[in-house]
What we know:
By secondary structure, chain A is an all-alpha fold. Chain A contains 12 helices and no strands.
Amino acid sequence: MSRHGFQWGKWLTGGFTVLVLMFLHLPVMIAIVFSFSDATIITFPIEHWTTRAYHNVLFEPSGQRLRESLGNSLMVASAATLVACVIGTLTAFAVQRYRFFGRSFYRVAIAIPLLLPGVVTGIAMLVYFTMIGIRTGLVAVLLGHITFCIPVVFSTVASRVARLPRSMEEAAADLGANLPQRLVRVVLPSIFTAMLSGALLAFTLSLDEIVVTYFLSSGTTTLPVAIYTGMRLGFKPDNLAIISMIIGVSGLLIALSQWLVRERR
Amino acid sequence: METPAVTVDHCTRAYGDFVAVNDVSLEIRQGEFFTLLGSSGSGKTTTLRMIAGFERPDAGRILIGGHDVTWQPAHRRNVHTVFQDYALFPHMTVFNNVAFSLRVKRHSRDDLRKSVMEAIEMVQLAGFEKRKPTQLSGGQQQRVALARALVDHPSVLLLDEPLSALDAKIRGEVREELKTLQRNTGITFIYVTHDQEEALTLSDRMAIMRHGKVLQVGPPLQVYEQPADLFVAEFIGKANFVPGVLKSVEGKKAIVQANGSTVGASVLSPIEIGSNVVVMIRPENMRITAAESAAGTIKQSSYLGHGTEYLIDHGSDVFRALQLRRRGEVPLPEGAKVECHWNWEEAIVFRK
Lengths: 265, 352
């Protein structure tokens, strides 16, 4: 609290903040830096700076596997999110708005896939799918992802539905709106942001899921699994290049969303 | 005879073991300001919700304009509700809130804009149509709810404790506006409240409810001056109650033995001689005269401006007397000895 001279408090908090940020983000920075390296082992300082890895990932046949797996990842994540949005939202309404036998059990049961370790879900599904004749592959992966995306959407939407006053829907009915009109004009706009944030979370979870995917995929797989298996065969800057690009695109999207929010106010 | 605006025909509604509305029958006339008055749990809100179509009676029928609507869902009924929490749509502007009922009925554009602006002007909110509900005060939100419910001229407007969320100062203003609005539109209002003052000042007729039953229906004056039973007498307005035993009845006049003396009161419904009874006297009908040797002592004297209210210790009783101010009259001081008496016509005897 010295009014003159060195301001300890300010420097301490400032320094601490920098340390925390470094702890969180330095590995990511380093990954980006090494994506411009030429070497097949991680050495520092980098001798030859190059964008060859980016070129490989984007255009060369050697990048084909990564490109395909990225496509698979986006496809699986989108589909899983879409299905989870529909089922999760409907479930949220069922659990919040209706009384039925086993309601509180159901509320807990639907969250279990989130709590179970991926290994358990993965093995269980593999055994079950084999039993009922679903082959390992993208469809199995999609089904696996849907199981943990549903509780994510469910929990965000359910808490919004709980705070949605019943009188709002009654008011809409009272003013002459039939059920579809009530849903489209009143209910959906009221829960839209909750659905959106649930969807974003589900999408992100699906995009970087490894364990369940590993069990359920064969041959064609998703990006995280492709990178993981690729890294076990030896360090390749290509892997770093593709995640650097993902980081770049995510950064742009975040900046865009912030800008959009600011414009609104 | 003219068709009633709303008929509640022997309606019963129970939730598990709790009977919220128990065989209630009401007839609400066209263009009437009708109030359902009762404390919480009396069944007044459930009755309103059955008329709106949010609840279905277990037994009985609801008729609107002579048509049986018991099995019609809320969105098919030509009645609108002003909710206790207003239930405005938070994602819509004031204009879109008010336009809601017209939009779902697919009105033409020009028509819609004109009707909505008329409704907004009617509740004096012109200039606010682009605001969101959260940018309005409680009183303004209330007006939006009113405009939204009146924009397509429903046959009946239901109001569920619409003033309870407002602070005391605005409540009085809005109350007067509500009455004006009802007179100007000519729409039948059915108003639910637990506030007896609101009920007395607003209603053409009112129904007093308790434990799911209707105790009395009538104009405020009748309910206040001729309560159907002791509960209504206690519930509406202030009153003094003197317990005793009914000695005799002659025509309308009853003689009651109370605290070793006899007092007079009028009889509204037949009571057997010898029953335990209670005599009710309104404070404004309690006369007091100062006398040195009187049995009563003024315990508290409250100057009200238009009059003075006295609390009088009278043996085992405490009486409340209200004297309107007359020119040149000085309020009696606390501690003064007074005699309390009343005209028998202005007191009522009830079965205990």
